[in-house]
Amino acid sequence: MNFAKYSMKWLSDLIFPAKCVGCGEFPGGKFRGYLCGRCMASIKIKNSFECIGCKKSVPLGKTCYFCRDGNSIDQLLVAADYKDFKVEALLKAIKYRFIKDLILPAFILVKKYLKHFNLKKEADLFQGRPLVVPIPLHRARYNWRGFNQSEILAGLLADNFQMHTRSDIIVRIKKSKPQAEIEDREERMKNVESFFCVLRPEAVRGRTVLLVDDICTTGATLNEAAKVLKASGAKKVVGLVVAR
Ligand SMILES: [Zn+2]
Ligand SMILES: [Zn+2]
């Protein structure tokens, strides 16, 4: 976060004290006042699993037979439902209001979910010591926000579950042709998209990678990252998100 933006945020925090993103009250205390204990406790953890491609219910979130061809993610784990307005408000406040203090409650949801998930013995996620990799932001976006919420989530996850995390494995690069050079509109649209590039293939070769992000919508981002990781030799790629 640059200085001007930091000062603006500091000033607005001073004028408008933190309110709970869920109920709009001034609770004080928890998560610096941005989320009250009651709202936090009322967020339900998911206990069903869905395929990343067709969203149909599948055992343990494993990508279904029909979606395996077009989806590089092998398994998808989703901690909470984005349709819960408190979850949506929480994640939006991190992303667009730069409220870093809300990453902790987002992580707590993931932690609760994983503890519940791990009770099912056959789904032991931590078998084979997966490498925790956050979905990177494009550098320009990182400089604008000042932090990557997925990277912080990945760090908390690795600390809490004794796993190894690295944020230097993949980078996000913008397709760089100057827009004016492209005549076709559809091509122009494609040109502004970013793509992933693996910087450390030796670190993922033969390993299970746990890809961490805040939100999964269509699954395109996770799949794109999983695709390049697998091309670099990753054995299995599991997507883990706070909400979908
Ligand atoms: Zn509240
Ligand atoms: Zn499917």
- Classify the secondary structure makeup into a structural class: alpha/beta
**Shape, principal axes of CA atoms:** globular
Name the average pLDDT.
Answer: 87
Please write the string of helix (H) and strand (E) elements. HHEHHEHHEEHEHEHE
CATH topology: Rossmann fold
Uncertain residue ranges = none
**Residues in helix, %:** 25-40%
Largest sheet: 5 strands, parallel
| Count of separate structural domains | 1
Bound molecules: zinc ion
Instruction: State which percent range the strand residues make up.
Output: 15-25%
Radius of gyration: 19 Å
- DSSP strand count: 7
How are strands sequenced across the largest beta sheet? 1-7-6-2-3
CATH architecture: 3-Layer(aba) Sandwich
End-to-end gap: 27 Å
InterPro entries: ComF/GntX_DNA_util-trans, DZR_2, PRTase-like, PRTase_dom
Domain Double zinc ribbon: 12-68
Family: Belongs to the ComF/GntX family.
Pfam family, one: Pribosyltran
Q: How would you explain this protein's 3D organization?
A:
The protein has a single domain, classed as 3-Layer(aba) Sandwich (Rossmann fold). The protein is 37% helix and 16% strand. The chain has helices at residues 3-15, 37-42, 85-96, 103-119, 139-145, 149-160, 185-192, 201-204, 220-231, and strands spanning 75-80, 131-134, 164-165, 170-174, 194-198, 208-215, 236-243. A 5-stranded parallel sheet has the order 1-7-6-2-3. A two-stranded antiparallel sheet has the order 4-5. β6, α9 and β7 (236-243) form a beta-alpha-beta unit. The longest helix is centred in the middle third of the chain and has 17 residues, at 103-119. It is globular and about 50 Å long. The structure holds zinc ion (2 copies). One zinc ion is lined by residues 51, 53-54, 56, 64, 66-67.
